[in-house]
UniProtKB/TrEMBL annotation:
<dbReference type="InterPro" id="IPR051320">
    <property type="entry name" value="Viral_Replic_Matur_Polypro"/>
</dbReference>
<dbReference type="InterPro" id="IPR002156">
    <property type="entry name" value="RNaseH_domain"/>
</dbReference>
<dbReference type="InterPro" id="IPR012337">
    <property type="entry name" value="RNaseH-like_sf"/>
</dbReference>
<dbReference type="GO" id="GO:0004523">
    <property type="term" value="F:RNA-DNA hybrid ribonuclease activity"/>
</dbReference>
<dbReference type="InterPro" id="IPR036397">
    <property type="entry name" value="RNaseH_sf"/>
</dbReference>
<dbReference type="GO" id="GO:0006259">
    <property type="term" value="P:DNA metabolic process"/>
</dbReference>
<dbReference type="Pfam" id="PF00075">
    <property type="entry name" value="RNase_H"/>
</dbReference>
<feature type="domain" description="RNase H type-1">
    <location>
        <begin position="304"/>
        <end position="453"/>
    </location>
</feature>
<dbReference type="InterPro" id="IPR043128">
    <property type="entry name" value="Rev_trsase/Diguanyl_cyclase"/>
</dbReference>
<feature type="domain" description="Reverse transcriptase">
    <location>
        <begin position="138"/>
        <end position="330"/>
    </location>
</feature>
<protein>
    <recommendedName>
        <fullName>ribonuclease H</fullName>
        <ecNumber>3.1.26.4</ecNumber>
    </recommendedName>
</protein>
<comment type="similarity">
    <text>Belongs to the beta type-B retroviral polymerase family. HERV class-II K(HML-2) pol subfamily.</text>
</comment>
<dbReference type="InterPro" id="IPR000477">
    <property type="entry name" value="RT_dom"/>
</dbReference>
<dbReference type="InterPro" id="IPR043502">
    <property type="entry name" value="DNA/RNA_pol_sf"/>
</dbReference>
<dbReference type="Pfam" id="PF00078">
    <property type="entry name" value="RVT_1"/>
</dbReference>
Amino acid sequence: MPSSYEGVEPISISGVTGGSQQLTLLGAEVSLTGNEWQKHPIVTGPEAPCILGIDCLRKGYFKDPKGYRWAFGIAALEVEEIEPLSTLPGLSEDPSVVGLLRVEEQQVPATTTTVHRQQYRTNRDSLVPIHKLIHQLEGQGVISRTRSPFNSPIWPVRKSNGEWRLTVDYGGLNEVTPPMSAAVPDMLELQYELESKAAKWYATNDTANAFFSIPLAAECRPHFAFTWRGIQYTWNRLPQGWKHSPTICHGLIQTALEKGEALEHLQYIDAIIVWGNTAEEVSEKGKKILQILLQAGFAIKPKDEKPYALFTAGSCRIVGKHQRWKATVWSPTQQVAEAAEGEGESSQFAEVKAIQLALDIAEREKWPMLDLYTDSWMVANALWGWLQQWKQSNWQRRGQLIWAAPLWQDIAARLEELVVKVRHVDAHIPKSRATEEHQNNQQVDQAAKIEVAQVDLDWQRKGELFIA
C-alpha cells in the first residue's frame, strides 16, 4: 500500500527485542468472498507496508480506501487422482528428520564484536517442548554444548499445529554481522514469472529442516551460542533467525539443482515449484527434483499425508430426564468412526473422553504416532501445555483436584508412551473455504450427534460408523 495511506489513530508496535515503531490505524473494506464487504482496521504508516492476514491472502479480495480492489491467489484449482510423490524411496515420515548436505563445512561472515545477551522470560507453555526439542537436536548432532563469550536469547515460536519451533533471537548478532551478497530472488518477481507460465498443473516439495542440513565450520559456531537451563549450546548446522541463513541455504540448493541438471523450476530458499500441462509431466519433474535433493543429502518428508490421524468430538443431549454424553473419533484414512457414550456428564467431558478413545485406537492398532485433531480450545490448550502444569501441581488448583482429574491423569500417562501431535481445527468456517481438514471435522461432529442404536458397523470393514 502506498505510504500516503495513513490513518488518524496513532498506534505503537513493539517487538520482542524492545524496538518499537509509531504507526497508524486505517479503516479498509475487506472481503473473503468478493461479495460481503466488511470494514476492518489495518496498521500502516510511512515506512510500513500494509500486510494482510493469511485468511485474506489465501482466497480473498481486498478493497483499499481509494476504492481499488486487490485480488490474491489462484481463481480455480482442479484436483484429480495422480500418483503421489511421497511413494519415492528415501522419503521420511519422521517430521523431525534432519539431512546432512554433502558439502564442505560452511565458512560464514563472522563479526569481531562480541554480542552477549541474557535470556529473557519465555512462554511457560514452551518450557517442556523446547527442553525435549533441545535434547532431540543434540542427539541428532544439530547442536552441541559449548563455552562461548557470545550468547543470544532463545525465542520459542508456536506453530499452527501447536508444536514449538526452536528459534533464537539473533537481533543483536545480526546488527554487527558483515553484509553478504543476497542471492534470494524477489518474491514478487517470482510470482510474475510463475503467472507467465500459464500451466494447468503445479507441484511443490517440502524440504525437511533445510537449514539444519547445512554444516557450519567449527570456527564459526561459537558466534551462535545460546543458553538453556544453565547450559550453553551452539549450532553445528545453519541456524534459523540469523540474517544470512536464507541466502546460504538458497545458494546451496540452487547449486545442487544445477549440478543435478534439474528441469525447469522456480526456487525460493527451500521451496521449489514445478509446472506442466499434464499431471504426468509435473509428476516426472517433481520426482527428478526430489531425487536430486535426496542425493545431495537433504531430507524430504511427505507433508500432508497423515496415516495416523484421528479427529475427535464430544456432544451432550437430554434424553427424557437424563443427560447423555457421547465421545466420537473419526479416522480420515479408514473413513470410519468409533464412539463411546454415557450419562450424567457434559459435552466438555465428552470431548476429553474422545481424546482417551483416540489413544485407545492408536494403542490397539499399534500406531507409532498419532496426529490428533480437535475443535475444542480447552482440549487443545490442555494437551499443548496445561497438562504438564497440572501434573506438576499434583493435579490440584487452589487445594482442590482439577475438573476430570482421573481422565487427565490417564491421558498424561499414555502420552508419555506415544508421540502425539495436536492440532486445533476451526469449527466455524464457511463451506466455500472449508479444507479437507474442516470436512473431516464436520464428519466427526455429525457422528457425535447420531444415536448409537442407529449404527452397528465394523471398524475393520471400513464402514461409515462403528460404535464401541
